[in-house]
From TrEMBL:
The keyword Thylakoid does not apply. GO terms for biological process: base-excision repair. Belongs to the FPG family. It comes from Cellulosimicrobium arenosum. The lineage of its organism: Bacteria, Bacillati, Actinomycetota, Actinomycetes, Micrococcales. This is Fpg/Nei family DNA glycosylase. GO terms for molecular function: 8-oxo-7,8-dihydroguanine DNA N-glycosylase activity; class I DNA-(apurinic or apyrimidinic site) endonuclease activity; damaged DNA binding; zinc ion binding.
Length: 295
């Protein structure tokens, strides 16, 4: 799933490529992906793109006359840019399509110079969401977003308040979009590794110096990832993300800090990776499917 650094890179890419161009076509291929009906997606046609923005993991293509094409790529979605976008008619589909392995077209937007982009989604669980709205806050998931972790307003004190508000596992807090916007499964693993913290440590058990260390790790990990992703074309962002990971997605490999083996805890629909030496004092966390997690 694209997270803050990749979404920020996509936003900058779109802002650079699409700003000033007029929309000549906006065609929905996957009807289930379109979550709004007023304004219709056809209202974008004829408008000029004034820029692109990010709200957490949401991308926002701003079109004049006060319209916003807002979309969330979810787990299997992606944006594919083409300097010569296909002009063949798009056939709307009610079902998922794509057979689960092939990325199925959900939306195609084409501009007056022939360029454009496709929103596609792979996998059988279709969660990509497209909204056409007059203001981003009309999307409930955007209205309820928490603080942006790279915003100066996100201080160690703010993080401490969030951690004290409810006693929960720290990884869950980092992934909670209503608390901190933009961090998902991958970067929460990376942040916790950098902070030398167990993913299951309870938030109210953190000492002030541990809160400060976690806050610093959030900023350092995300800023480095944004810098790595910045300026890359959309097609290269997934590989750049994978290559920059220290523990996430690297179970069985050596930790780059201490040399211990990176371990994994699996859940029904996701997994996390961590280093026992760096994060849990050498304790191996039990697989949640087998027994209780060690804290």
């Amino acid at each position: 799933m694209p997270e803050l650094p990749e979404v920020e890179a996509l936003v900058r890419f779109l802002d650079d490529r699409a700003a000033g161009r007029s929309v000549v076509a906006a065609d929905v291929a996957q009807i289930a992906a379109l979550k709004t009906f007023d304004p219709p997606v056809t209202a974008l046609v004829g408008g000029t793109v004034t820029g692109a923005r990010r709200h957490g993991k949401w991308l926002d293509l701003v079109v004049d006359d006060g319209l916003h094409l807002v979309f969330h790529l979810a787990r299997g979605g992606w944006l594919r840019w083409s300097e010569k976008s296909p002009t063949t008619p798009v056939r709307p589909r009610l079902g998922g399509g794509g057979g689960g392995k092939i990325a199925a077209l959900a939306l195609r937007v084409r501009f007056d110079d022939g360029a454009g982009f496709d929103l596609t989604e792979a996998g059988t669980r279709k969660r990509l969401a497209v909204h056409v709205v007059r203001h981003p806050a009309e999307v409930r998931a955007i209205e309820t977003l928490g603080v942006e972790p790279l915003d100066p307003a996100f201080t160690a004190d703010v993080l401490g308040e969030l951690m004290a508000a409810r006693n929960q596992q720290v990884k869950g807090l980092l992934r909670d979009q209503s608390s901190i916007a933009g961090i998902g499964n991958a970067y929460s693993d990376e942040i916790l590794h950098a902070a030398r913290t167990s993913p299951f440590k309870l938030t109210r058990s953190f000492a002030p110096d541990e809160v400060a260390r976690l806050h610093a790790a959030v900023g350092e990990v995300l800023a480095a990832a944004v810098a790595t992703s910045s300026g890359r074309p959309a097609a290269e962002l997934k590989d750049a993300k994978r290559s920059g990971m220290r523990v996430h997605g690297r179970a069985g490999q050596k930790c780059p800090v201490c040399g211990d083996t990176v371990r994994e805890v699996s859940f029904a629909d996701r997994s996390l990776q961590y280093c026992a030496t760096c994060q849990t004092g050498g304790q191996v966390l039990a697989d949640r499917r087998m027994s209780r997690l060690l804290r």
